[in-house]
Design brief:
428 residues, mainly beta, four-stranded antiparallel β-sheet, 14 strands
């Protein structure tokens, strides 16, 4: 595992996206063709071979893919060339070795089993059968099975998504996911941790207190949080408390009692007609079944404050249980054309995003895909969106560059008025 993740003569991680040194030209069609955010037109199967021999790094980072690895001759050499599939192709049979080893590390060492009991020696044959042999003693009861570890239904998995060096020294960005793996809803998830000293964080506070929407999860539900801290610290989190409750049983509808049977009619007499049987009342109608109340509508983002570069967010759709699709419109209120933009995003922990890429020279910041620029004065563009649990992020323009707006074309002078027609001659 250490060798695959970078402890090797090349100091290269053979898992794409892990650390800053990993293969950039893997042999993978979806990773090597032009990004959909740059050119959304379809690419035919044969046309994708155009990108096989391009030397530039893959435009789409295939995060988590395990490549073929170095040459197996003891030289530890690796060829980061897209056409060298024996080095850089991520295949299904390359990944299980690492996944199996990591799963074993995650489970931990299992306790050794008890040694087998020694075989008893064979007794010598008795000279004569005893008159009444004693009953053999009952075998001891089997030891009870060890109880499952407490709070094992909720897991916390963290991964490094970015690393860089700034004025505070080497930094790493961590994204963590809290997931309810059980069959019951859990409430009040409480975490503890070590080596946790973030410089910035979102969806959690420094006391490891989660917001309500992340601390209360339905079966199979998950919530994310993230933080940035010194690269020398490797955080460890564990779940120390929560309460679980089984889902309520569906109500049983009471069946109305059957109508009473009418009493037997007396025998009629010649002078008296037979009495009429008593009227049977129909059973009362069952109350109508009320439909379940619709889930509460997610809160709309607060109205934006008008700034030179203003970001306006709208919720385009909601995916159960509480995932929202946000669309962001960027408005240029300056009198110049914006040619580049450095964006700061607070509270951004998306499951997916589009139109937003990492800033090439400012780690921790973002920018827009190249086709978005230029943004002309008073122009509004909607090229940014993301899918995120709960509330949306807050976007601000940390820096931007401009160019003078193109001059307006000269106004053409109005055409001269048409000459007046002379009045008609008088009629005699």
């Amino acid at each position: 595992v250490d060798y695959i993740l970078g402890k090797n003569p090349l100091n290269m991680s053979y898992v794409v996206g892990f650390t800053a040194n990993y293969p950039r030209r893997i042999h993978h069609r979806g990773a090597s063709v032009v990004s959909f955010n740059v050119d959304p037109r379809p690419i035919a199967c044969g046309a994708s071979f155009t990108y096989l021999y391009v030397d530039a790094p893959n435009p789409n980072v295939h995060i988590g893919a395990v490549v073929g690895g170095p040459k197996g001759d003891g030289t530890d050499s690796y060829s980061d060339v897209r056409n060298s599939y024996e080095y850089g192709e991520p295949t299904t049979y390359n990944n299980p070795g690492l996944v199996g080893a990591l799963a074993r590390l995650l489970v931990g060492a299992l306790p050794p089993g008890p040694p087998p009991p020694p075989s008893p020696p064979s007794p010598p044959p008795p000279p004569s059968p005893p008159p009444s042999p004693p009953s053999p003693p009952s075998p001891p009861p089997a030891p009870p099975s060890p109880p499952p570890p407490p709070f094992s239904d909720v897991t916390v998995l963290c991964s490094i998504v970015s690393s860089w060096t700034d004025s505070n020294g080497p930094q790493k960005q961590w994204n963590c996911e809290v997931r309810n793996e059980g069959i019951y809803a859990v409430r009040g998830i409480t975490l503890s941790g070590s080596s946790f000293s973030p410089n910035s964080l979102w969806n959690i506070d420094r006391s490891l207190v989660l917001p309500d929407w992340a601390a209360n999860l339905n079966p199979g539900g998950s919530a994310g949080f993230g933080f940035i801290q010194d690269a020398a610290l490797t955080p460890v989190f564990r779940v120390v408390a929560y309460t679980s409750s089984a889902p309520p049983s569906p109500p049983v509808t009471a069946q109305p009692p059957p109508p009473p049977s009418p009493p037997p009619a007396p025998a009629p007499t010649p002078t008296q007609p037979p009495p009429s049987p008593p009227a049977v009342k129909p059973p009362p109608p069952s109350p109508p079944i009320q439909p379940p109340s619709p889930p509460p509508k997610p809160p709309s983002p607060p109205p934006p404050v008008k700034t030179p570069i203003t970001f306006v967010q709208t919720i385009d759709a909601t995916v159960p249980p509480s995932f929202n699709v946000f669309n962001v419109t960027i408005i240029n209120y300056t009198n110049k054309t914006v040619t580049s933009l450095k964006i700061q995003a607070k509270g951004l922990a998306p499951l997916a995003r589009w139109g937003l890429i990492d800033h090439p020279t400012a780690p921790g910041y973002f920018t827009l895909v190249p086709k978005t620029f230029p943004i002309r004065p008073n122009e509004a563009v909607t090229q940014l969106g993301y899918l995120q649990y709960g509330a949306g992020a807050t976007f601000t323009a940390a820096a931007f560059t401009t160019a003078p707006a193109p001059p307006s074309p000269p106004r053409r002078p109005p055409p001269p008025p048409p000459p007046k027609r002379p009045p008609p001659p008088p009629v005699v």
